[in-house]
Recover the amino acids of this structure.
């Protein structure tokens, strides 16, 4: 049962030549093919290319060479540009777009020897919390295919949860790594803003977007992130700071670590069963020697409205590039240039993307800029200030990742606000730029629940260590959906 | 605050989106809900708080040396273009 091994075990097995990359790739490709009708986790499967890469990895390993992830199969969210491979961002707009270059994340993982099996389904342009806005159809949750996997990185999360892959890349603008990690019962990390290069990541909201990992465990996430993180001169917001070895010292004791439970996350929207799981997880951390106190971040309730000004404003600017001229969908028989722009964009974008572009256009338009956009940026500073104060008192903040476990397909598509409120606990970390994780911490009525762990800027190592220590004590992260066990 | 149909049409025009007449009522409803929702920000006391545009405090935007580092790859890039001739992107006639 090779798919049950973690990425860490698979990498060790490859290095010890107990298993070949070709064998692994064939096994996971077979799982992908079998799962696709039920889960729809992939937009493109690159089987031929993967087998060629696997053969090359096996040759490198046989010669005693190969990077840290030599021969390990992974997948990329279809928002990362991959040279010569279709990159759609879940949109009709980019249905036939073949990227001429690799995103930095893709190039780094390639250099580490990872073998790419395909491109993963996602909400269109990463705008959504259920993977239902994808032009390529919704992804379904491996725990129950009537339910959503979360979004926007729903394909990445479902694929890892069903062990179609040991790990996948993902991105998080308002919760798009953590929320699907929680819904699918896996581990996800959104690093500090600027930690992972955004070069070649198709832009949604440039001051919030951050690339990260979905994996089976904190140790696996650390192994991936170690290869992905670091300064990139091609991303002007990339931070030029050394990247610690996230694997060094994993499992260090938690004695003396101060944990703050975010009071505002225990609101009336929180499902009591999810709260129970989170409180049980906090008790584990206390048993391991951490101290626990409640911490208040009073501006947090304003994070969702602030986000739905800032993110759409940046989206409306970023998506202005889709004009039907240089790349992307073009309408037929345009009368003039304006008609070309308008119809190409209207045919190429789905309803949620249009809503966000229009919201952004509205808040940036004359007469509304101060009232909405500047106001939201002021509130953003209040929220960032809350985190800064909290991290003066505690080392880590914890709470639920989501108010409930996974919901049914179609349950929240009628009203956008209902969908937006799903990210109520995750959005504040993006506004403040701080790193955050989701770790499996139990089950509510048979569905996985996520514990969110948030740290100060550049404290990824602290998050990963705490999560790993917790995973040494618990086995929630090892539970698999029956159908894919 | 309910947005009027004319407001929604104007926003769509500014965003260069051609909405179908039948879609407009739905966008009007949803966008009005969103505008109400973000209107909650009004109640926040932000007196003396400066707007935050960058999530990392105290970092100045880095500048790079003004040197040519890219190769000319227009042929590669234009493979994704809907319509190209002689290395140029084609669009409908702009100047009569």
């Amino acid at each position: 049962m090779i798919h049950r091994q973690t990425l860490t075990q698979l990498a060790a097995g490859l290095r010890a030549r107990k298993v070949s990359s070709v064998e692994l790739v064939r096994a996971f490709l077979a799982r992908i093919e079998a799962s696709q009708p039920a889960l729809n986790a992939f937009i493109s499967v690159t089987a031929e290319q993967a087998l060629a890469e696997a053969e090359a990895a096996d040759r490198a390993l046989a010669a005693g060479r190969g990077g840290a992830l030599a021969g390990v199969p992974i997948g990329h969210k279809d928002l990362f540009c991959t040279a010569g491979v279709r990159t759609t961002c879940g949109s009709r707009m980019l249905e036939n777009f073949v990227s001429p270059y690799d995103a930095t994340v893709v190039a780094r993982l390639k250099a580490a020897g990872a073998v790419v099996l395909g491109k993963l389904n996602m909400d269109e342009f990463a705008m959504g919390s259920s993977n239902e806005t994808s032009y390529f159809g919704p992804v379904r949750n491996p725990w129950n295919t009537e339910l959503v996997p979360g979004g926007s990185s729903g394909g990445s999360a479902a694929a890892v949860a069903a062990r179609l892959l040991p790990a996948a890349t993902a991105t998080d603008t308002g919760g798009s790594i953590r929320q699907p990690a929680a819904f699918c019962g896996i581990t996800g990390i959104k690093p500090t803003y600027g930690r992972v290069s955004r070069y070649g990541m198709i832009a949604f909201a440039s001051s919030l977007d951050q690339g990260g990992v979905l994996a089976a465990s904190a140790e696996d996430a650390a192994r991936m992130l170690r290869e992905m993180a670091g300064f990139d001169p091609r991303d002007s917001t990339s931070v030029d700071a050394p990247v610690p070895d996230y694997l060094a010292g994993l499992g260090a004791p938690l004695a003396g670590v101060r944990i703050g439970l975010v009071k505002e996350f225990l609101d009336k929207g929180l499902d009591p069963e999810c709260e129970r799981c989170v409180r049980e997880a906090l008790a584990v951390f206390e048993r391991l020697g951490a101290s626990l106190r409640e911490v208040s971040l009073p501006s947090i309730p304003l994070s969702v409205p602030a986000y739905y000004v800032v993110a759409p404003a940046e989206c409306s600017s970023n998506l202005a590039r889709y004009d039907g001229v240089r790349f992307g969908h073009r309408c037929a028989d345009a009368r003039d240039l304006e008609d070309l722009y308008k119809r190409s964009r209207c045919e190429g974008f789905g309803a949620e993307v249009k809503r966000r572009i229009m919201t952004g256009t509205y808040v940036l338009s004359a007469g509304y800029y101060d009232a909405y956009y500047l106001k939201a940026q002021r509130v953003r500073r209040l929220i960032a200030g809350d985190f800064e104060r909290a991290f003066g008192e505690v080392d880590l903040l914890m709470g639920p990742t989501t108010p409930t476990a996974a919901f049914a397909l179609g349950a929240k598509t009628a009203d956008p606000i209902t969908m937006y409120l799903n990210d109520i606990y995750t959005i504040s970390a993006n506004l403040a730029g701080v790193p955050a994780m989701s770790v499996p911490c139990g089950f509510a009525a048979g569905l996985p629940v996520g514990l969110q762990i948030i740290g100060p800027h550049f404290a990824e190592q602290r998050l990963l260590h705490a999560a790993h220590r917790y995973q040494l004590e618990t086995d929630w992260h090892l539970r698999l959906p029956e159908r894919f066990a | 605050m309910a947005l009027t149909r004319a407001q929604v049409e104007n926003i769509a025009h500014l965003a260069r989106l051609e909405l179908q007449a039948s879609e407009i009522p739905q966008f009007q409803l949803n966008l009005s809900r969103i505008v109400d929702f973000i209107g909650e920000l009004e109640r926040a006391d932000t007196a003396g708080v400066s707007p935050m545009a960058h999530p990392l405090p105290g970092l100045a935007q880095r500048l790079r040396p003004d040197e040519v580092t890219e190769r000319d790859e227009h042929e590669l890039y234009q493979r994704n273009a809907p319509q190209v001739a002689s290395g140029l992107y084609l669009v409908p006639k702009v100047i009569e």
Observations:
- Helices of chain B lie at 5-14, 24-38, 74-78.
- The radius of gyration of chain B is 22 Å.
- The mean pLDDT of chain B is 93.
